Amino acid sequence: MIRRFGVVVALVLSGLGGLVAAPRQLTLDDAITIALRENKKVQIARLGVEKAKSQVREAFGNALPSLDLTAQLNRNTQVPIFFIPNFEDPSAGLTPIRVGLNNQYFVTAQARQILFNSAVFTGIGASKIY
């Protein structure tokens, strides 16, 4: 049993030897391209540029108008009923009063535009430096 296991392991390991990659020939341009792509400082610099571009878009976005739209539906399976006493005839007991509807719809729309905010204009001016 152990001998069979040893033979199987030896065969598997001998087959893995062919999977080792041969050394690759690189031109100087290829080596420079790979070095620039894999360099951590270059990657950090690229991320810094992307961050600056995002901040520029954010600065301009603060000056743009915004529109908010909200819709709501309330479905009452049973209309609420309140019981109040009959003030004209107290011996009559409680009077049921239905309040509300089966379906209630609410829709709101809100538009906003900044007319003047010095911080927004300062941000837009500073973003042009990038």
Task: Explain briefly what this protein structure is.
This protein has 4 helices and 4 strands; from the N terminus they run αααββββα.
List its salient traits.
130 residues, single chain, two-stranded antiparallel sheet, alpha+beta, 4 helices, flat
Mean pLDDT across the residues is: 83
Beta-strand percentage? 15-25%
Q: What strand line-up does the widest sheet have?
A: 1-4
Which word captures the global form? flat
Radius of gyration computed on alpha carbons = 37 Å
Q: Let me know the number of strands.
A: 4
Order of helices and strands: HHHEEEEH
- Helix and strand composition category: alpha+beta
Q: Count the helices. How many?
A: 4
Oligomer state equals single chain
* N-to-C CA distance: 71 Å
Enumerate the spans where pLDDT stays under 50 for 5 or more consecutive residues: none
Largest sheet: number of strands, sense, barrel closure: 2 strands, antiparallel
Fraction of residues in helices? 40-55%
Structural features, described:
The protein has 130 residues and is α+β, with helices and mostly antiparallel strands. Among the domains are: 50 residues, no CATH class; 40 residues, no CATH class. It contains four helices and four strands; from the N terminus they run H-H-H-E-E-E-E-H. The strands form two sheets. It has a two-stranded antiparallel sheet. The protein has a two-stranded antiparallel ribbon with strand order 2-3. Strand 2 and strand 3 form a beta hairpin. Helix 3 runs antiparallel to helix 4. The longest helix is centred in the middle third of the chain and has 22 residues. The two termini are 71 Å apart.
